[in-house]
Amino acid sequence: MKKVVHLIAGVRPNFMKIAPLWHALNATGWCLPKVVHTGQHSDINMSEWFFQDLEMGQPDYTLQAVTGSHAKVTGSIMIAYEDLLMKEKPDLVVVVGDVDSTVACAISAKKMHIPVAHLEAGLRSFDRTMPEELNRLLVDSIADILWTPSKDGGVNLKNEGVEDSRIQQVGNIMIDSLTMALPKIEKVDLKSEHDISLDAPYCVVTLHRPSNVDDKEQLERIVTQLVRISERINIIFPIHPRTKKRLIEFDLYSQLLQPSLTLCDPLSYIDFIAAVRKSSLLVTDSGGVQEETTYLGIPCLTLRPNTERPITITEGTNQLITLDNLVEKVEEIIENGKPVVPSIEMWDGQTAARVVDRIGQFLNVR
User: Fold this and answer.
1) Whole-number pLDDT of residue 46
2) Element (H, E) at 119
3) pLDDT tens-digit profile of 141-200?
4) Do the beta carbons of residue 19 and residue 119 sit within 8 Å?
5) Residues 105, 37, 145, 175: what is their CA dihedral angle, to the nearest 10 degrees?
6) Beta-bridge partner residues of 319
7) Among 51-65, 229-243, 351-365, which stretch is predicted with the lowest mean pLDDT?
8) Fewest CB atoms within 10 A around its CB: which of 13, 282, 301, 317?
9) Coil, helix or strand for 236?
10) DSSP of 261-330, one letter per residue?
11) CA-to-CA distance for 177 and 173, rounded, in angstroms?
């Protein structure tokens, strides 16, 4: 009988992380991977997105999380997932990343004595005001297996007293997604599909964190800086729904309507990476894209006081910046050009294969 492994995903980056693992587990012959979509981001057109970008088909289960506060989202997912686990007890539950879905399903599974593995474990920003940091700490404290993307993740876990037997460095699963999608990415025509021109040098911008977009004064300063940057280099700005809502609410959206500043709706993963891949630099407050730009050798300016991915700074192409030095840093990159593409241990597109091997060992199938 095949081993059943639940792969938990709630927001778009989660699906990108489980896709390579789903394909690798499906190919084993001994495993039946099942995708559990918690519904944390209910606005994703899951059928089309999965089929076109990840080639996974429909999720096996959709939990329909409620919207609202972190407590409401987490609680609703815990209740719904517990109901599912009462009907089907998998051999292993794999949670990824650091969103509310991750901690909710990990807790529900552990309370029913089902083993839990955390993919992308050990990442730390050391900022406990971030909900994601609390989720990371909670999940890593209870998971049976902790799969880290790099050596710093293992160091963080050991410093927290985690025993060596639970820690396994497997590499960065996001790089698997990227390399798996490259053939499609290379065929993307953003001009015909989204009327986005890549002819002149450009910068890609992504902003969504509450600390940057929910405060009117902060967002107004960001808009002013982006307009200044657009006078020096073209900007492509896929606007997150949260950010667009605030821009309109604060009467700032019209200021971004500049000839060299292209505004568009959020792009699919394939289209977004196609834009990033040919860009001169990226300005962001996101997490995963710090890793993808490092792999692609694209300079990344992260508008945050900290990052849970410090290896992208020490060994990659990422820099933490503030609004006070944003324009200056953009100018430096324009003048100096792109850095040499770095090579980080186990960021090689083979993470899913290593994880499958570890799962096989854990479930005693090899």
Assistant:
1) 46
2) strand 116-119
3) 999 999 999 999 999 999 999 999 999 999 999 999 999 999 999 999 998 888 888 889
4) no
5) -140
6) 301
7) 51-65
8) 13
9) strand
10) EEEEPPPPHHHHHHHHHT-SEEEE--SHHHHHHHHHT--EEE-SS--S-THHHHTSSEEE--TTTHHHHH
11) 7
Q: Alpha-carbon torsion 280, 297, 183, 264, what sign? A: negative
Mind listing the pLDDT tens digit for each residue in 87-133? 999 999 999 999 999 999 999 999 999 999 999 999 999 999 999 99
Q: Out of 6, 113, 208, 240, pick the active-site residue.
A: 208
In the chain, the amino acid numbered 202 is Y
Task: Tell me which architecture the domain covering 189-336 has in CATH.
Answer: 3-Layer(aba) Sandwich (3.40)
In this predicted model, what pLDDT tens digit does every residue of 265-298 receive, in sequence order?
Answer: 999 889 999 999 999 999 999 988 999 999 999 9
User: How far apart are the C-alpha atoms of 8 and 97, rounded to whole Å?
Assistant: 10
Tell me which amino acid residue 297 is: G
Residue written as token pair 């994703």 = 44
Q: Is 245 exposed, middle or buried (0-12, 13-18, 19+ CB in 10 A)?
A: middle
Active site annotation includes 113: no
Pick the CATH number of 3-171+347-362 from 3.40.50.150, 3.10.20.440, 3.40.50.2000, 3.40.50.300: 3.40.50.2000
The Cα 71–Cα 67 span in angstroms is 10
Residue 47, pLDDT > 60, answer no
Angle at Cα 64 formed by Cα 62 and Cα 70, nearest 5°? 125
Domain with CATH 3.40.50.2000 in the chain: 3-171+347-362, 189-336
Locate all alpha helices (DSSP H) within the chain, ordered by sequence.
12-26, 46-49, 70-87, 100-111, 131-142, 151-159, 173-185, 190-194, 210-213, 216-230, 241-249, 269-277, 288-296, 311-314, 326-336, 351-362
**What one-character DSSP code corresponds to residue 215?**
S
Spatial distance between the Cα atoms of 328 and 341, rounded to a whole number of angstroms: 23
